[in-house]
Design a protein that fits this description.
355 residues; alpha/beta; Rossmann fold; six-stranded parallel β-sheet; five-stranded mixed β-sheet; 11 helices; 34% helix; globular
Length: 355
């Protein structure tokens, strides 16, 4: 059996209250000060993951006590790397042979390259399978609410990132038109040039005509608001923290917002021993990639850096099918998407003037 480890971290300071209830009464700056002094530690042991081939794996979730804001703005990059390398040493001490970097730990700095150079075990960011499930989820949602990609517009927000770029390259040939949205016009145009029928923009307002939006930035804050979205649009929010404002859920019931990368993990007796807000036996796609590589015995650095190839995405789709990982329905803002939400988006598209 090949074992795995996966790094998770608090999205906001108050997440500390899940383990330390007193944190509910502490200001954010004090919690972050505590986080900064604390070493990564084991959050839970994962058991019962079993492929349909009969292969098994188990592992650990390692908690890196850093928020996105700390990683991006409040700590030197070298200090963040030091924490993540320490995570890999903890993982090895638990018998893990490969470690996945979750959420912001997968995008900070050079996307795992430096961590992999200093880690005693293999490293992956999980971005290849995150891309695969984002694409699968978006296309499945299109079929459910009546969007024909060949007659519709796509927007990819965060197109210069490793996930956004590859999503745009794979999906753009299927859509009538694609707009790639990034922070730098030159870099965003370079991505658009790699796509089919695509333009570049540095203005989030340019998504107003999109029927399907894939958003996967490292903004760390709300980026997409109700006024940005077309009636009946699908928004696949892959970012953590999410890019889509909670106002969209309350003010735009005609829009279908789904979270990318929610996966059913194979195995009858799976126990993550940790509540990250998903139904039992489901996980993020990045977690699932790490588990799949362990099940396959593919103990090597896999998805690293700022580029993810189409070949890597196709390889993870193949491994998912082989081992029994699959999309687990849709979730939005930490809840399952009800049939009524899909119906509302479908009806919105039947209004006069809509496709």
């Amino acid at each position: 059996m090949h074992k795995f480890a996966f790094v998770i971290h608090p999205i906001k300071p108050q997440d500390a209250a899940r383990k330390y209830p007193i944190a509910k009464y502490m200001p954010d700056w004090l919690i972050e000060s505590f986080y900064g002094r604390k070493k990564p530690f084991i959050g839970s042991h994962v058991t019962g993951v079993e492929s349909k081939t009969g292969a098994k794996t188990e592992g650990v979730f390692i908690i890196c006590p850093l928020t996105p804001d700390m990683m991006l703005h409040k700590l030197p990059l070298e200090a963040v790397y030091e924490k993540l390398i320490y995570c890999s040493e903890v993982a090895k001490s638990e018998g893990a042979e490969i470690m996945g970097l979750g959420a912001f730990t997968s995008v900070v700095g050079d996307g795992g390259v430096t961590v992999a150079k200093h880690s005693p075990i293999a490293i992956t960011t999980g971005n290849s399978y995150t891309i695969a499930t984002s694409i699968q989820g978006a296309l499945k949602a299109c079929a459910m609410i009546g969007i024909e990609p060949e007659n519709s517009n796509l927007a990819v927000v965060g197109a210069t990132g490793s996930i956004g770029r590859t999503c745009a390259k794979i999906l753009s040939p299927q859509f009538q038109k694609t707009v790639c949205v990034g922070r730098d016009q030159v870099r965003t145009q370079a991505v658009a040039d790699e796509c089919v029928r695509a333009t570049a923009s540095i203005d989030v307002e340019s998504i107003r005509d999109a029927d399907v939006v894939i958003t996967v930035t490292s903004a760390g804050a709300d980026l997409i608001f109700p006024e940005h979205l077309k009636p009946g649009a699908i928004v696949c929010d892959v970012a953590r923290p999410r890019d889509v404002s909670a106002k969209v859920a309350s003010e735009r019931p005609d829009v279908l917002v789904i979270e990318g990368g929610v996966v059913a993990v194979p195995g009858k007796d799976i126990n993550f021993n940790f509540n990250f807000g998903f139904p039992p036996k489901t996980a993020f796609a990045c977690m699932s990639e790490t588990m799949m590589l362990a099940l396959e015995g593919k103990i090597e650095n896999f998805t690293l850096g700022k580029d993810v190839s189409v070949g890597q995405v196709e390889e993870m789709i193949r491994l998912a099918d082989k081992h029994g990982f699959e999309l687990a329905g849709f979730r939005s803002f930490e809840k399952a998407v009800p049939d009524e939400a899909i119906d509302r988006a479908r009806l919105a598209r039947l209004q006069p003037g809509m496709a």
